[in-house]
């Protein structure tokens, strides 16, 4: 039996209105506008037999000439190609790699390489897409902040790029100088069209990276911001750097804790998924496909052209328990006075012991609906004011109270990311070769959960 997919589309009429994209169309006709896509991987991540979500997404990008998409990929901090023979330069490279893992001294090098590439290829009307995982996510956010602070340098001025980064790093102490540099050497009105981040962290080595401006708590320079976060990560060296309260505010508004709605970028989503930091990476567990599928769909809606894929969040993936990341020597770091994020409006960092605390979910962020279908799952992250203990272990449509529970979930729609669902479960219910009985109930649960909300969008690629 074939399904009329068009008949399964339910418009999202109740979603809040978002501001239109502020990317300049420039002088190019729409048919000539290109997508410039930068992908930066996480620490120690590079192409291999098991690839990260960054590599997977990069592999899906349509790259032929008539696709009008230019791409750039940089492997993670601490990666290097091994030479065919051992030499002094090889040993020096190993030492450099270890130091890089500890203090990220190549953080700036990776950012400037991507900045230089965009500067050489950008023309007015192009749309810039940035993707990153872990510290790579932090780097693309720094890259976005740099473009906002000093503009996108004009061709012929490459020698000024290191100085541009220096001005950006000191932006808060001398905004006027950065603005004058932008007017003199750069294209001024360049915005980031889409930034997709998987579990942003700035410090995963021994030391915390230097704090740079326009990364945490500020997002006015990005039209569309999407951030996948891990519910079950507890390590002090993997604290997430998310947008303050899931919205964009100026630095002054963050300090006085009185953000004004008119300064919000509006098109921001920070969504929590089951799993630890590594599960957002997707190199080992198939459950990482869920945040990958979500990011794909969000990017496609923003205009990124990707190849079709058969990525699906299946029952067997949902049954995999999140891995435990806080083990062994990681516990030692929890009881050392390491400089870390404080998640306090008044100051950025603290030396208080972390002691394995859970992550904190803040107002404005959402939880992906896939977590509801994980048998017996309880997230480690704390959600102030929301009773995680009341989550059902697994929705059972044969239980009399199930409809009341579905109704209660629907009434708390603001907490859930429910606007994008793939059609895979619906199609299987009507397929000639029916799925096993134990999966049928699960598929019905997902369809029932979707229909419990006032409106949703079913999306398929």
Shape estimate: globular
| Major sheet summary line | 8 strands, parallel
What structural category do the secondary elements indicate?
alpha/beta
SS summary, helix count: 13
Query: Low-confidence parts lasting 5 or more residues at pLDDT below 50?
Result: 1-19, 245-264, 389-398, 454-461
Run of helices and strands: EHEHHEHEHHEEEHEHHHEEEHEHH
**What percent strand?**
5-15%
* Main sheet: strand order: 2-1-3-6-7-8-11-12
Distance between the termini: 20 Å
Structurally, the number of domains stands at 1
Describe this entry's structure for a reader:
The chain is an alpha/beta fold. The protein has one domain (8-414). Helix content is 29%, strand content 13%. It contains 13 helices and twelve strands. It has helices spanning 53-60, 88-103, 107-121, 135-150, 161-169, 175-185, 251-256, 289-301, 315-318, 330-334, 402-411, 424-429, 437-451, and strands spanning 35-40, 69-74, 127-133, 152-153, 186-187, 192-198, 222-230, 268-273, 340-344, 347-350, 366-368, 416-417. The strands form three sheets. It has an eight-stranded parallel beta sheet with strand order 2-1-3-6-7-8-11-12, with helices on both faces. A two-stranded antiparallel ribbon has the order 4-5. A two-stranded antiparallel sheet has the order 9-10. A hairpin with a 2-residue loop joins strand 9 and strand 10 (347-350). Helix 3 packs across helix 4 and helix 4 packs across helix 5 (161-169). The radius of gyration is 23 Å and the shape is globular. Mean pLDDT is 74; it is low at 1-19, 245-264, 389-398 and 454-461.
Attribute tags:
single chain, alpha/beta, eight-stranded parallel beta sheet, two-stranded antiparallel sheet, 29% helix, disordered N terminus, AB_hydrolase_fold, Tle1-like_cat
